[in-house]
Amino acid sequence: MSDHPIKSPRKLIEVALPLDAINAACASEKTIKSGHPASLHLWWARRPLAAARAVIFAQLVNDPGTNIGRGFKYGKNKKDAAIERKRLFKIIEDLVLWENSTNEAVLECARAEIRRSWREVCELNKDHPQAAELFNPDKLPALHDPFAGGGAIPLEAQRLGLEAYASDLNPVPVLINKAMIEIPPKFAGRPPVSLSAKGRKKDLGLDRSWTGATGLGEDVRHYGNWLRNEAAKTIGDLYPQVEITADMAKERVDLKPLVGQKHTVISWLWARTVKSSNPAFSHVDVPLASSFIISRKAGKQAYVQPIIEGGTYRFAVKLGTPPPEAEKVNKAVSGSKFPLSSLGHSNGGRLHQSGRLCWSYGCQVDGDCCRWPTRSHLSQPDH
User: Fold this and answer.
1) Are 57 and 109 in contact (CB under 8 A)?
2) Buried residues in 283-318 as b, exposed as e (16+ CB within 10 A)
3) Which residue, of 117, 255, 289, 379, has the fewest CB within 10 Å?
4) pLDDT at residue 198 in the model
5) What pLDDT sits at residue 201?
6) DSSP per residue, 3-23
């Protein structure tokens, strides 16, 4: 045991938390679609921001109760401690609400409590031989998350006024955390550099204050739009807009108000194709699709229906519950290692068809018609 033990009161998290409020905020957070880090990248094990914010606060704030047997005097009597604890709970209840994520009044209240508790700890340890180094009342302790993942913990630590460090072996969370906690602070409070672009000063106004990362956000939007427009000039012809016709609206009542308008396609389904093994249709390229389901969400079900017209076919997007044949296509290839394939698993560079059928003409699809790509295939340009 050290000759100079560190004196620290119990933290709020060791005694009690307003769990109902935290749980409700975490559940509500799942419905947030805009402004949430999940919209940047849907990291598979992301922690709720509300929970991270509450836990960090409760780990840093001292519980007001009496500390017994710790070699120092700290805390209030039971009655006063309960009143003070209730006040701290109210701070957490406000802090975890999504709408308060950028509310400076709420955040500053929480930061003030963290600073007050830290100063109390520094005062208790002022006689420690390393007090100047470890217990500086003007400098809060830093937080390091060595397995940062989606970055919820370091992001919320930074929001609460701490110096945050994050690391991870996976390059994906490294990039996520750079975008969330490393780059934005470097540009905090700065106006966007795109103001120098022609006409931008008049559009945005020079007298505007650029708090936080709003200036950086404006630059991201400006140059993102520029990049999109430049890309459209180069490859825009490969992604044509679709004109809504009266025929399309006959089966899709949701399209009736849009008849005559042109709209950008927001999603493309890509599939490899093979020649049909039916001799009568050997000239037809058949897509290898593992599923015709677009959406399974209740009330928003949608699927693609192949329509056979003589020796050709086309696709129609349908709304409503998918028919059994659309479901069967999806289930037939469960576990397939070949993306969008209806042929099954690989073996020696080939794909066994396991009784798969050509959905358009009913004939069996031979596994020899599809192989894993070789180096020569990969070096060929896409068509």
Assistant:
1) no
2) ebebbbbbbbebeeeeeeebbbebeeeeeebeeeeb
3) 379
4) 56
5) 57
6) SSPPP-PPBHHHH---HHHHH
Note whether 63 and 10 are within 8 A (CB).
Answer: yes
**Contact assessment for residue 121 and residue 9, using Cβ atoms and an 8 Å cutoff:** yes
**Residue from 114, 12, 18 nearest 67 by CA:** 12
Sheet with 293-295, strands from edge to edge, namely 293-295, 302-309, 312-319
Compute the distance between CA of residue 322 and CA of residue 301 in angstroms, rounded to an integer. 7
Q: Look at residue 262 and give its three-state secondary structure.
A: strand
User: Is the pTM above the cut of 0.85?
Assistant: no
Structure tokens given for 6: 């560190």
pLDDT in tens, 363-372: 555 444 444 4
What is the phi/psi pair of residue 345, to 5°? Answer: -95, 160
The helix (run of H) or strand (run of E) holding residue 161 is none
3-class secondary structure, 263:
strand
The answer to whether residues 276 and 282 touch, using CB atoms and an 8 Å cutoff, is yes
Query: What's the CA angle centered on 72, arms 66 and 77, to 5 degrees?
Result: 20
Burial of 137 (0-12, 13-18, 19+ CB in 10 A): middle
Which pLDDT score, from 0 to 100, does residue 329 have?
A: 54
User: Can you give the residue ranges of every domain in the chain?
Assistant: 12-186, 269-373
DSSP alpha helix (H) spans, the chain? 12-15, 19-29, 49-60, 78-95, 104-124, 131-134, 152-159, 171-177, 183-186, 200-204, 214-235, 246-251, 324-332, 375-378
